[in-house]
Hints:
The protein is 42% helix and 30% strand. By secondary structure, it is an alpha+beta fold.
Amino acid sequence: MKYELAIRKAAEDDLAQVRDWYDAQRPGLGSEFLIEVDAACARMVESPLAYPTMHRDVRRVLVRRFPYKLWFRIVNDTVVVLACTHAARGPTYTNRRLT
């Protein structure tokens, strides 16, 4: 089955904030972060059922090279990215973001 990708506004805001933070650390690092996010999204769309269900019907994929997780849900034939959180964030914070 071929899946489409949709990114919620909240997740877009998360990604922009993280990108800006990395760019402030080193120019261009934010772009490198987004390249890894794009790769993670490609993996999600290719085989979303391969990723573990972490909270209700929400799954997560790790962003390579960076300590971030993308949280997504499968809705019909669409992979919907709900949030991007730092890997050190606890489940209470994450679960609030996923509702």
